[in-house]
Amino acid sequence: MATQSFENWDKDGEVLTAEQKQFYEKNGYIMLKNVVPQYELDRFRHRFQEICEGKGVRPEYTIMKDISIAKSEFKAGERAITKLQDFNNDPVLFDYCKYPAVVDVVRDLIGNATSNLMSMHTMLINKPPDTGKLTSRHPMHQDLQYFPFRPADGICCSWTAMEWVHRGNGCLVVVPGSHKGPLHPHDYPKWEGGVNKAYHGIVDYDPNTPRLHVEMNAGDTVFFHPLLIHGSGTNRTEGFRKAISCHYANADLCKYVDIKGTTHETTSNEIIEIAKKRFAKRGIDLKDIELDFADIWRVRARPLDGNRANL
Ligand SMILES: O=C(O)CCC(=O)C(=O)O
């Protein structure tokens, strides 16, 4: 197999300099300016708004609502929806995952020009104005908690700001270098105002851990490692804070692993239950069927342009 770019942190990549690659290797993230142009972001925003209005919604999309807004007068539509997931087959939104300026960077971080890359997990995060219950926060967590494939170094997330994101509207918060540590145990935080579905946080996370607020303009993109500890703050503005994101895996390197008996079994059980409910809505009863967590990811994942290799 050809050398992966990340095995050569001291060499320039195709688009990143050796210095930029080393920054990622040391800190677990890198933020690049102006990666996605405004006209593409406008297409993604428009498509998201259509989905919020129920137009062209495919059965596999996961549409998540803010727990406190869902109980308020804004039960539906863009005001209530915090997240759209699983848009790998969306004719407009998947263009983000394929966007060359994003993919080229990912290749430099987890593979090389010929690696078979897969889009594993997709999200459009729409952080609405907080109701005062602080449910717009996202607890500090590691994305690897949700993934039954390894190695972690073969996975990278791109997260693109769709507008100005800053401390006031709940920008991303990262703990630089934390990707060098282990995967920590996760659970729902015990927040008074409630916690959104599947927003797990690191148990016993020390809020005094030094962290960095990543303020970004529209189109700026942060690339980060799946073990990087991160989260996001409350949206204290009257506007939405939108970002679009894709987790990529190098399918030549990564393989599904059995996570039974590990610290992320609770998360996987919850995701399996969500999947079963979705089938039940379509009249398919899987109540007594044992679903394999890896199969859920096999169905979700989509190759970018190559083949599935191991995934
Ligand atoms: O966009 C955000 O607020 C954080 C999203 C995030 O970290 C996640 O969904 O895993």
From TrEMBL:
Going by the UniProt record, its keywords in alphabetical order are: Dioxygenase, Iron, Metal-binding, Oxidoreductase, Vitamin C
Which Pfam families does the record cross-reference, listed alphabetically? PhyH
Cite the EC number: 1.14.11.18
GO annotation, biological process: fatty acid alpha-oxidation
> Which cofactor(s) are needed, names only?
L-ascorbate; Fe cation
MF terms (GO), sorted A to Z: L-ascorbic acid binding; metal ion binding; phytanoyl-CoA dioxygenase activity
Pathway annotation: Lipid metabolism; fatty acid metabolism
Q: Which InterPro entries match?
A: PhyH, Phytyl_CoA_dOase-like
Q: Organism's domain of life?
A: Eukaryota
| Gene Ontology CC entries for this record | peroxisome
- Signal peptide per UniProt: none
**UniProt family annotation:** Belongs to the PhyH family.
This one is known as phytanoyl-CoA dioxygenase
